[in-house]
Amino acid sequence: MSDYISIYKAIENELKSLSKENTTLIAVSKTKPYEVVREAYIQGIREFGENYIPEAIEKFTRLREEFPEANGNVNVHHIGPVQSGTLRKLFGVFSYTHGVGSFSSLGELAKRAEKEKKLIRYFLQTNLTGENTKHGFSLETLLENKNTLSNYQNEFCIWEGFMGMGPSSGDLMETKLAFTKLSNFRKEHFPTLQLSMGMSGDYTMAVELGSNFVRIGSKIFGERDYGTHSV
């Protein structure tokens, strides 16, 4: 039996030493089988991250059936890009979505939340590096629409803040520049909102720059189990 909670708690303590901000540690369980999620839940982990919607529905529906109390004490974070055609499936499973990267998806999310009457909290995904392979808003676009962004919220659809990632190369200097850019942008223009930055390879830097949510998988659960998910 793997001791997931000890690793999780050790990282939480590290996060507390790095920043005065409250930082939520998301244990990224994407591609891991149900048995891993079940064991992590039994040990005390309550914040999970998933990319693939069908996989998450299967695992967390099963978890909540086996442990009814999990309906009220587990947060599942969708950490992949949000697509207008599939976002309706987010409701009822996910508490947060970190990848809203277009106005069409944002508008559809708000409409669907009001229709479903199920709460979801979202982060606007930013493209901090200008890479064509990256999903998300440029900071310039967000600034141009600063006065209308809050219009997409309603009582069931809550805007938490911004999500950002470093370059695909993983270069830590470039990653620091990207995180600093988003941190300064938040401080100057949206100081009440939160940041979702940082993964296994760069989370300490992200937290030092003000991140409120970090997404860590391999340090907690080991390397990903590829080929086990539904797209």
TrEMBL record:
The keyword Kinase does not apply. Residues 14-224 form the Alanine racemase N-terminal domain. Residues 1-28 form a coiled coil. SUPFAM superfamilies: PLP-binding barrel. Transmembrane segments: none annotated. Gene3D superfamilies: Alanine racemase. Keywords: Coiled coil, Pyridoxal phosphate. Pfam families: Ala_racemase_N (PF01168). NCBIfam families: YggS family pyridoxal phosphate-dependent enzyme. Belongs to the pyridoxal phosphate-binding protein YggS/PROSC family. This is YggS family pyridoxal phosphate-dependent enzyme. It comes from Leptospira bouyouniensis.
